[in-house]
Amino acid sequence: MKTFHIGGVHPAENKLSAGSPIREAALPKQAVFSMFQHIGAPAKPVVQKGDVVKVGTLLAEAGGFVSAPVYSSVSGKVNKIDAVLDASGTRRMAVIIDVEGDDWEESIDRSKDLVRLSDRPELDAKTIVEKIKNAGIVGLGGATFPCHVKLTPPPGCKAECVIINAVECEPYLTADHRLMLEHPDEILVGVDLIMKAVGVTKGYVGIENNKPDAIKLMTEKSKDYPNIEIVPLKVKYPQGGEKQLIDAVVGRQVPAPPAIPINVGAVVQNVGTAFAIYEAVMKNKPLIDRIITVTGKSVKNPSNLLARLGTSFQQLIDECGGVPEDTGKIIGGGPMMGKALLSLEVPMTKGSSGLLLMNEKEARRSEPQPCIRCAKCVGACPMGLEPFLLSKVSAMEEWEIAEKNDIVSCIECGSCQFTCPSKRPLLDMIRVGKTTVMGIIRSRASKN
Amino acid sequence: MNLIFIAVIVLGVIGLVSALVLFIISNKFAVHEDPRIAQVSEVLPQANCGGCGYPGCSGFAAACVKAADAGSLEGKLCPVGGQPVMEQVAGILGLAAVASAPKIAVVRCNGTCENRPRNAKFEGAQSCRVQQMTGLGETACGYGCLGCGDCVKKCQFDALKMDPVTGLPVVDEEKCTACGACSKACPRGIIEIRLKGPKGRRVVVLCNNKDKGALANKACKASCIGCGKCVKTCEKFEAITLENNLAYIDAEKCKMCRKCEEACPKGAIHAFNFPPRKPKAEESTIQNPQNQNVEPSKAE
């Protein structure tokens, strides 16, 4: 069975909520829409205090090319525009709306009927990308990179295939798994749309083989789409990394930065993004909701919720039985790459794929011990880097050595820290080094 | 026997010839370094801290000699050695030393465990730079001290210590040389290199919080809320400015009247090294002879 070739680890899967069907979360009383829900320039608010909005009303326009607009997921009145604490742990600009009723914009088609690409022959590549851009769709796997940017290859690059990331390699998370089981047809139309948008005739959907039911269902449904191939993959973290997935599915290696996947002819999108693209293009529905997994060993009712963006995490947890008493840490995202939350009064954003409640025992980090030079981290690094060295030179502030050793290639997957028998905080230091070195590279580029 | 003789003579001749060649070459290609650089270097503290802005003490010595050739030592200061060392340097270079006021590192945060409640626990690598990447950190203040001691690790002079009770770094006034290493190490820019002031007396806003008043107030009992009361009390000297909800006292303009300290409703302004205040009736007699002539008169 296929998988990527360098490094990787296999953490306990703990897919507790895999059997729990997607259910709709209740409407929040107050919704908070951060202007920083994507990578790139922040969105610019176009509403003012007191404005009345509907579900699907534009709240903020894109702040640049690498940016995305934000739409309201609720109807009501704009309470204020202010800096609030978000999942990143900092206070940033957001539009806060007091919810009244559930009034949708009329342009959104709320029917459940499936619309195939063959039903809408007038759609050309440019229109599709334009619709995706206007719907505010970003990569829903967690990286939140604006979708239309990836679908607009830079000059000199040509896409050859589309790869859909349905591996869901993070332990605990099951949002993509449930989406595939419940909306396979919509996803395949979405893949078709992405293929049309970038002008390729080959699409792959990579699924890890810990989801046999999803592989079976998708293979069956994809019989109608001869250009789309379902690729079962061996379970290994971080297979959902863009570069790892390209290696696993088509066996191509993306060179070190500044090279990007399009340089090897691949366009990678998340399966959730494919679904959102279907809804945006065929149903005119901007990105206003997403599926989020609320899980944890002590959670009463681990679930997959279809929740409106801007709902507070507190409310989502309450719907799954509340915060258990023994909770030690709550993580926004998966256990490997997610970030611990400072408060539960934080709104869910486009990138919120999961909420993981760890109990006191799981949450505690062990006391770091001296490095024993076992090189396990080197073996685990999916980018072929030397994490022990990068961590050390970052702590010593030897930025030149860090840069020479490709610190910017680090994808921050945390495999090194996970595998370290001395429990050293390797990634913590590498992140500092990576950010600093990237800053140095940027300032050097701007001088030249 | 003969063989040994020959060997000794041959080796001796080779040695002599080589020595001669080396002598000629070293004379021919000698790099002439200004002897004053070595002399200046000798009187410098050799801490190589970089506090002067040059790469190490020899770099500073070269810069001093160059500046002396241009005519003045202005702007050149070894923060570690201070005025005495600069006078020695000036003596070697045959110039008058430019007087400079001594400075000191000031930790502009009073978010002690008592003043600033911890509402999260940081377990990552014990480094302020790492904690800074988590956002607000352990408290609700996104500007205050993170408490992992990056500044303490950077201090070469043993002048900074973490106070286990308050969780804040404490500057040893005797040992601090104002080299600025701690200030550069702090990811939140809390530590300011500031004029030490006459007799070490100085008035400082011990807060770095730029949030709006309500948020700052909620995060810490000792935060500056940007109310501007201190600015009003200092209208005459215009030493205090308010920017981004944070007051700042310009050490150059401050006359040390300590009125702002009294006016601050949050106790964010601190006066260092002043004698204890006298009872209320005699309060306006200022205990600082150096500044008496410029104190606001009692009649006002």
Which structural class should the secondary elements of chain A be placed in? alpha/beta
Overall pLDDT metric of chain A: 92
Report the strand count of chain A: 17
Beta-strand residue fraction of chain A: 15-25%
Gross morphology of chain B is elongated
Query: Spatial order of the strands in the main sheet of chain B?
Result: 1-4
Mean pLDDT of chain B, nearest integer? 85
Radius of gyration of chain A, in angstroms, nearest whole number: 21 Å
Instruction: Kindly report how far apart the N and C termini of chain B lie.
Output: 107 Å
Low-confidence stretches of chain B: 281-300
Number of helices of chain B: 10
Class of secondary structure makeup of chain B: alpha+beta
Report how far the terminal alpha carbons of chain A are from each other. Answer: 47 Å
Task: Catalogue the unreliable spans of chain A.
Answer: none
Number of helices of chain A: 14
What are the secondary-structure elements of chain B, in order, as H or E? Answer: HHHHEHHEEHEEHHEEHE
Describe this structure in words.
The complex is a heterodimer of chains A (448) and B (300). Chain A is α/β, with parallel strands linked by helices and 448 residues long. Helix content of chain A is 28%, strand content 19%. In chain A, the strands form four sheets. Chain A has a six-stranded mixed sheet with strand order 1-14-13-17-15-16. In chain A, strands 2-8-7-4 form a four-stranded antiparallel sheet, with no helix packed on it. In chain A, strand 7 and strand 8 form a beta hairpin. Chain A is built from 14 helices and 17 strands. With 300 residues, chain B is of the alpha+beta class. Chain B is built from ten helices and eight strands. Chain B is elongated and about 100 Å long. The A-B interface holds A 85, 88-91, 339-340, 342-343, 364-365, 368, 395, 425, 428-429, 431-432, 435 and B 119-120, 123-125, 127, 129-130, 133-137, 142, 211, 215.
